[in-house]
Amino acid sequence: MWQLALRTLRYRKAGFIATFIAVFLGSGLVIACAGLMETGIRVAVPPQRLAAAPVVVSGQQAYLVPKEDPNDTKDMKTVALAERQWLDPAMADELASIDGVERVVAETIVAATVVRDGRPVQAGAQSLGHAWESAQLGPFSLVEGDEPTGNRDVVLDAATASLAGVGVGDQVDVVTRGETDSFRVTGVVSPAERDPQSLLFFADSAIGDLGQHGDQVSAFGLFLRPGVDAEAFQESLEDRFAGQPYLALIGDDRGLAEHPEAVGGRAQLIPLAAVFGGMAVFIAMFVVSSTLGLSIQQRLKEIASLRALGATPRQVRRMIVGEAFFVAIGAAVLGCLPGIVIGPLMFEIISEAGVISPVVEYHQGFLAYLIGPAVALLSALLAARITSSRAAKVNPVEAMAEASVQRKWVTFPRVLFAVFFFLIGIGLFIVTGAFMAGPVASATAGPAVMAWAIGLALISPGLTKVIGRVFAAPVRAAGGVVGYLANNNVRLRSVRMAAAVTPIMLAVGIALSNFYLSTTQEAAATRWFAEDLRADAVVSSSTGGLAPDVVEQVRSVPGVEAATRYVTSAGWIDKPYDGSHVSSPWPMQGVDGGSAAQITGITPVQGDLADLTGATAGLPVAQATDMGVGVGDKVTLRLGDREPAEVTVVALYEAKEGYETIMVSAGLLAEHTTTGLAQQILVKAAPGTSPEALMAAVGERMAAVPGAVVGDSSAIITFAKGTETQTWVNYLLVGLITGYTLISVANTLVMATASRKRELGVQRLIGTTPRQVMQMLALEASVVAAIGIVLGTVASVATLMPFSIVVLDRPLPSGPVWIFLAVVVGAFALTLAATLLPARKILAVPSAEAARAAD
């Protein structure tokens, strides 16, 4: 049977093109996803500023949260911190006393930005100031000039100096602590080769006064004595740090001390790669199964002949699986080629969208190139084994009779599995609507759309016939006699047409559910996180933050009713124990109490937001009740930099489940952010002042503040921004998956049309014109596309409806209608093109020759 399988491939090459392409692209996508997962697991960030130090000590940029029992120190969840954790400078003496350490150099950073003509000058994504002592950690050497010694001396990197148009001896304006001061450029250092950024080095004696955290250390670089092994030293240091929130880093991990934000990307990248890879495997199996099923339907007479000649069902199965193996093995291996390109491309898209820091180095090792082909090959063989079951068991006489037009499709296993997957879909519908809350409700969406799609695919021949009858009247009205022929073909060839309907349904269902899932989640996050922020104008900073006195300048502008500093971060409630935010921290918003009532629009159930000053906080009433906390009680917050803060509860308010936020005084929250400054000021217009007039007046006053940008309420930084980023990533990734599916759809339709060469030849011999044939095929293709769109829409609605009810309190998802229209138009266009283009090639063959073609 293996030899027969090879011979079959030689004479039926066109029938296996779709299988080849599906496995080929599936292998490439799985390789890419394996690379993304490897990258997320390793999170390698080659060091730049700390490259000379063999060992780097930094704070642990993650917090261990008790899962259920606050006293259980073993059952803990590791969650990334929202802000940089700072280290005590006194720790340098302890590290220097360790055997094997030659010297310790502290890395101190502050937000510092060069400005020219009132505008920030940056050579890269960020601009940071450092003590000159830390230049040796790079190492950064002077290319001209001298080191800074005075409190108003600065050394710039060459790229920043060039952009600012300054050289050694010139004066340059630098923003630190949100204020502008003039510094003398004493020297220029070589620019960073990787991770471009603006580097400013200040005198060691001055750095403590230039930033909110200038007296704290971000990391320590340890230089070891000759002969000391860095890896062995790291292990001993980790034992020394056991139970303390410190890390000893070597190799590429040292870059994590420079870019602690890279740690948080791991939690998003790994599940994203897993879900995307699983979706690729599922679609590959689905498409291979569909194309092989169509191929087998077209060969029932051939298979019946083999059975009549004595071939056993097992031998037929081996032949079909053998055909799939020979096609899939080559396709799976060749899939390494697109995997080389797709992986880095996907990572670039994801990193640019903000899911993971772009400084993380992409890794796609040999393991990915083993996993991808293996998974793709196994998926194809499993699909072939499932598809071959009916063909192997068919009665030879029945197969000979139904080879031209297959009508029987109902089998007990097919019905059983259809019921099984529909029950899964119904169960996920109920679970989402009854037990899920907030963004986590999306966790059931992926499995739900797959369950509905599989269930519909299993009964698609019957659904194709039923829905085809619904479309029969408009088809007949549009095509007359040609429409009559198209309707007959749809009715009689429903089983074969279902093979074309299924991938269309899959593509439409996945596209609609994922696109509208993203837009709905974005709308919900924006609504519940930002709808209570009633700012008519927003002042933002592009230089690291706004000085505390800027808010007073804004309040003095005519037409301003209220203005507040606005700070965002994330953290936890330590005491009393709160188990509601184990996997992810609480979103925290900081505002000034005096303006909170006008800006937030929150009406407390108890207490008053005007008391939100100093060490105070406001809590959602549901969580406060669960913890037994009321107004006037003390709670301990664990803020974004890991520091604890005991605060007094001054207000309780209602919040949408799953989108709760802790309100904290802006001053307290800002102290525990990386920059130590407020990033925005929210402004409310006085009665009679339009938002446009307010923005103009505030903009005029802020013209003297370097880096200050005035915008409308859409500029407000909220936790919805992260959801918006995920939305665009979803668009791109789902677009890639949908494109993959559509390529397979096209191949399936091309194969289905090409197999009708004899039928179309006979039609032309009995008087049907080529134009009528094309019209008939166009109507058939339109019906196929319409059925696929209907079924795909049903699958997506069954997925989106419970999710939308949970997050938006309404059954209809949020999102532009053009997404649906684009999917519909794309499905019709592809179906028509994949049907009519091969049909034109068939019609170019003389009708008599086409009528003699083999089935």
TrEMBL record:
<feature type="transmembrane region" description="Helical">
    <location>
        <begin position="776"/>
        <end position="805"/>
    </location>
</feature>
<feature type="transmembrane region" description="Helical">
    <location>
        <begin position="324"/>
        <end position="346"/>
    </location>
</feature>
<feature type="domain" description="ABC3 transporter permease C-terminal">
    <location>
        <begin position="275"/>
        <end position="396"/>
    </location>
</feature>
<feature type="transmembrane region" description="Helical">
    <location>
        <begin position="497"/>
        <end position="517"/>
    </location>
</feature>
<dbReference type="InterPro" id="IPR038766">
    <property type="entry name" value="Membrane_comp_ABC_pdt"/>
</dbReference>
<feature type="transmembrane region" description="Helical">
    <location>
        <begin position="269"/>
        <end position="294"/>
    </location>
</feature>
<protein>
    <submittedName>
        <fullName>FtsX-like permease family protein</fullName>
    </submittedName>
</protein>
<feature type="transmembrane region" description="Helical">
    <location>
        <begin position="449"/>
        <end position="467"/>
    </location>
</feature>
<feature type="transmembrane region" description="Helical">
    <location>
        <begin position="817"/>
        <end position="837"/>
    </location>
</feature>
<dbReference type="InterPro" id="IPR003838">
    <property type="entry name" value="ABC3_permease_C"/>
</dbReference>
<feature type="transmembrane region" description="Helical">
    <location>
        <begin position="728"/>
        <end position="755"/>
    </location>
</feature>
<keyword id="KW-0812">Transmembrane</keyword>
<keyword id="KW-0472">Membrane</keyword>
<feature type="transmembrane region" description="Helical">
    <location>
        <begin position="415"/>
        <end position="437"/>
    </location>
</feature>
<dbReference type="Pfam" id="PF02687">
    <property type="entry name" value="FtsX"/>
</dbReference>
<feature type="domain" description="ABC3 transporter permease C-terminal">
    <location>
        <begin position="733"/>
        <end position="843"/>
    </location>
</feature>
<keyword id="KW-1133">Transmembrane helix</keyword>
<keyword id="KW-1003">Cell membrane</keyword>
<feature type="transmembrane region" description="Helical">
    <location>
        <begin position="366"/>
        <end position="384"/>
    </location>
</feature>
